[in-house]
Amino acid sequence: MVLLDEKYIINAGIDWNRTIDVIEDAVRCIGNSDFSQPIKPYLRYRNLRNRIIAMPAFVGGDINMAGIKWIASFPDNIKQGVPRAHSVVILNNADTGEPVGIFCTALLSIIRTASVSGLLLRHFIRQRNPDKVKVGITGFGPIGQYHLKMCQALLGERIERISLFDIRPIDAVLTDAYDNVEVVDTWEAAFQSADIFITCTVSDAPYINIPPKPGSLHLNVSLRDYRTDVYPWFKGAIIVDDWEEVCREKTDIEMLHLEQGLQKEDTRSIVDVVNGDCLAQFPPDAPVMFNPMGMAVFDIAIGSYYLKQAPVPAV
User: Fold this and answer.
1) CA angle, corner 276, sides to 273 and 278, nearest 5?
2) Are 86 and 72 in contact (CB under 8 A)?
């Protein structure tokens, strides 16, 4: 068994096209029913905003790995200069159950999250094939920062501008390397002209209530930013990673279900994107919203990918 930390992943590097390929491989395993993933439980105590989540899964195919992610999310940590999320991923040999690796870093989860977004973005760009795109990101903690890196790698010269907004000041050190990035004063300024809009906040309450740009893609990563009155604009073009996972915990999807009558059959899944090319079935001017609760199979897949990257000393 090997013990891997953030330094190991940084040294191995992030090839976004490859990590997105890994996520796509895992989606195909889901489509082939070559996976297992129980609904994840949430551990809460004292301050109920905080939670620690257990995420077990098996993913087959060439990945062929089982394991579990144990991730804590304490939103108020940022007020104390402490990272919001902390996680450990344990990988098990799928054939023997033997533990083969432990990742002690939240970076693995961050890479997984941005790579799942990248998979939707890849298929969206292939389908719509725009010459230029404007990107908006609201929330610029670690998740937002790595989404910026992913967008730069995936979109390259297609990017006309990336607009960033955060309720806290954004350190110029994080953006100076990019000529096409601007920091804006409101979320509306990042949202209104965005062809691709990404929520990476820890918002307590939804606030987005204005029309999206026609034909835009909305990667609703933080899941609690859109008010339910946006439903008419996105109706018919809502995608989820897993309905049973995402329609709970007061997510935007659950609120749309409770207040607007959204049903599972009204949505498409990430499998429909990869195996069914569902994006081609949406009208070109339809805004598309992707809502990912986070699937353990993707954490196991990304962990397996990094475990195989290079020889490491046994612990």
Assistant:
1) 55
2) yes
